[in-house]
Design a protein that fits this description.
The chain is of the alpha/beta class. It contains seven helices and 14 strands. The protein has a single domain, classed as 4-Layer Sandwich (Metallo-beta-lactamase, Chain A). A six-stranded mixed β-sheet has the order 1-2-3-4-5-6, with helices on one face. A six-stranded mixed β-sheet has the order 7-8-9-10-13-14. Strands 11-12 form a two-stranded antiparallel sheet. A hairpin with a 2-residue loop joins β7 and β8. The two termini are 32 Å apart.
Length: 215
């Protein structure tokens, strides 16, 4: 069974996820840890649980989701894994960093490009890689069928959706991603979003005011 620990990091209140199973292999999804105390919180949890980091995964590369990439790649000697199209988004973070008084970001040189339709293995668990653009140019989501849960980044939130007014955003593409890729998942699928509380596919199909489905 997949275990999930949520950390709420940085001034953007971004959800960073740590996932693992009984083998103790783990993945770190969208590390937003920026301050020393946030980095310590993440690393202490990994140490206390005796977890073995295997993957660093980015659903997309807006600034709030990559603040901890350098820390994680350095501490755990992991390659950054993302969709190749998100390099466009990553390169744009320097502009946003300047706006918030942060230093320029360096994209880790050790990186692996993820292909939608493929799978990643964590211990005895698998993650399906789903292509869900719209909030960003090449956002991906990760679906674990065994535990019936989805890590959606900023595509779909509790009764909301990701904004589409940033570079690479497009409402029509986002709507298609939600309707054609996410909504066909089982209704009880638990959604772990990039911000805010968890929800389910069934709840969003019924109550999401932006992308609802007829009852």
């Amino acid at each position: 069974m997949l275990e999930v620990q949520t950390f709420v990091f940085n001034d953007f209140q971004e959800n960073t996820y740590l996932i693992w199973d009984e083998t103790l292999e783990c993945a770190i999804i969208d590390p937003g840890c920026h301050t020393a105390s946030e980095q310590i919180a993440l690393s202490n949890f990994i140490q206390e649980k005796q977890l073995k980091p295997k993957y660093l995964l980015n659903t997309h590369c807006h600034i709030d989701h990559i603040l901890g990439n350098t820390f994680v790649t350095s501490k755990y000697k992991l390659a950054l894994q993302l969709h190749e199209g998100e390099l466009f988004t990553y390169k744009d973070t320097d502009r946003w960093a300047a706006m918030f008084g942060l230093p320029a970001f360096v994209i880790p040189e050790d990186r692996v490009f993820l292909e939608p339709g493929k799978q990643l293995t964590i211990g005895n668990q698998t993650l399906d890689i789903l292509f869900t653009p719209g909030h960003s140019i090449a956002s991906i989501s990760f679906y674990n069928q065994q535990s019936n849960c989805l890590f959606s980044g900023d595509v779909l939130f509790y009764e909301s959706i990701g904004r589409t007014d940033l570079p690479g955003g497009n409402f029509e593409r986002l709507e298609q991603s939600i309707r054609n890729i996410l909504y066909p998942l089982p209704s009880e699928t638990k959604i772990y979003s990039g911000h805010g509380p968890a929800t389910t596919i069934g709840h969003e199909k019924k109550f999401n005011p932006f992308v609802s489905e007829p009852s």
